[in-house]
């Protein structure tokens, strides 16, 4: 619900459990007054304290009022160079050369439904409302529209920003954040999700200290190293208590998320496109739209915050052609064959898989061009018929005969120098004139900011996808961007290339979705290097990590779960010892770790023993019978990563069914007696556990489930709970 109070000048956004407020001050500055648990309708500007502060300037129109300073008061969208020395959200390069921005309130409009952003990902759907508050920078001749989407039932507030050049001269836009959120406190922890290739999104938590703390990416993708999702929370916030604010950016390129604890112990969070090498030229009449950010506040801890994100993402961001339906169990040939395969080898793997209940065969890297290793072939999106005689037209019907549908791997944004595409269009790769471009995995990056490049690549992909029935595409990206310079733009506009590249990727993804509406697209970037809300809008699942070791995956999936729902995490059972770290784990642990996500296998199943095959058959049955719990259930983290095991639980919306998954670490002699307390059940119901004994929801949650002593390394268990009819 959006309320404008004309007398107080307040805009109040209420969701089911939260309230967000901003207020137009007497000098036209838009102040941020409150965001937190829901409170009644009132003017909350009493929370904005005023006091003259030395060295904090006062806007000119404040005259003798020295208590009003942009430098100390909470702003709704911070400016630059005009008296606020904290993190800025907006920076123009004016025709006179000044790099400043100053904003005053100009008006607002309310719209039914949720705004959309052309060419950019955004939450969508029924039941939302839109508020647009317009600010103006008189010297720049620019209007800045702050967009707010309110999904009241989801406690979700989305934000976006559109800058319009209404003047008569060309402007430079050097910074345009998507989100600025000021707090009148800073006794909070900042949680970020960090890592590297094969160890993505590991939770890192620390108290805010004075100054700026930031994470970000200048790699051209949101990156393995930091995720565009951060949390600010009470110092003692835990899974089930404490005030938490989660902020996600729906963007897949360079980003920055920065929190500043200032001199008066206030805090500002700013999130948006990274200002590194960003400068957008705005000719008169032109506009620029910053990507969407989304906020969720929970006063019931991190668990509730995550569940709210999960619901909102599942129901208002993902555009899965199979929404509400079970995802197919897949087999991917990558770790089984790498580049070394023949039709017969693929069919042998597929045949074994189909016999065990697998439904989709995914042909990974190596099927196209001259691609026998990673030094050649990228860009040549036609079938390598010496590897696959007769092409996909010969392979796919044979997969169909086995009862399998077909999926295929592509890496559209890249090119090898040893490829027909590169030989024909060497200028299509990003490179700085006079410099030899850095290679990454032996490949260069195509200039996806250019339409003709995108058109060419997509035309080739379209042909492949039209040649046989394709159920699924894995869209990969295996290097970071460097040498970012586009032959299609003049020197003064090179600061647009990073962002235009991302817009180009989104555009091709959208075309693919439009042309093949039933296609399930899985995002991938050397595993989880582009796992973000932007990508999820186009690809409703993302390969979570190139690390398929079940034990490492526990930490990766744990961190990922703080924002992203389980159904978005591509997770496969792979061979043991694991290909990435050599760890040997039981098949059961590997399956339990993978089963909560978009489930599949990535190994040569013909190497399994008869017993293992029987176990796989039963794992697939378990997943198929319970997919709705895994993918649509409310997610509860039952442990963190510090104990002897990691456990999590998924509960159906009506609380009548639940599944508990547990995977333990290394073996322990003389283990203590342990119980596991469950969450999210109905206290009053009685649940049968794994078809055996029954226990009350209250008992299971407060007293807990006794755990059997676990013998050996990496033991695991799964408990299925079903309410007993009484
Ligand atoms: C990186 C991906 O994450 C892997 O799963 C695999 O598809 C390889 N690329 C193929 O090159």
Outline the structure in words.
- The longest helix is centred in the last third of the chain and has 23 residues, at 610-632.
- The chain is built from twelve helices and 37 strands.
- Strand 16 (255-261) and strand 17 form a beta hairpin.
- Helix 9 packs parallel to helix 10 (587-595) and helix 10 runs parallel beside helix 11 (610-632).
- It has a nine-stranded antiparallel beta sheet. An eight-stranded parallel barrel has the order 20-21-22-25-26-27-28-29, surrounded by four helices. Strands 5, 10, 13, 16, 17 and 18 form a six-stranded antiparallel beta sheet that branches.
- It is of the alpha+beta class.
- The structure holds (2R,3S,4R,5S)-2-(hydroxymethyl)piperidine-3,4,5-triol (DGJ).
- (2R,3S,4R,5S)-2-(hydroxymethyl)piperidine-3,4,5-triol binds next to loops.
- (2R,3S,4R,5S)-2-(hydroxymethyl)piperidine-3,4,5-triol (DGJ) binds at residues 334, 364-365, 409, 476, 478, 524, 526-527, 543, 546.
Category from helices, strands and their pairing = alpha+beta
Number of H/I helices = 12
The rounded distance between the terminal residues' Cα atoms is 40 Å
Query: Helix fraction?
Result: 10-25%
Q: List each distinct ligand once.
A: (2R,3S,4R,5S)-2-(hydroxymethyl)piperidine-3,4,5-triol
Overall mean pLDDT score?
97
Total strands: the figure is 37
The largest sheet is: 9 strands, antiparallel
- The strand order across the widest sheet is 6-7-8-9-19-15-14-11-12
Rg computed from alpha carbons, rounded to a whole number of angstroms? 27 Å
Low-pLDDT stretches are: none
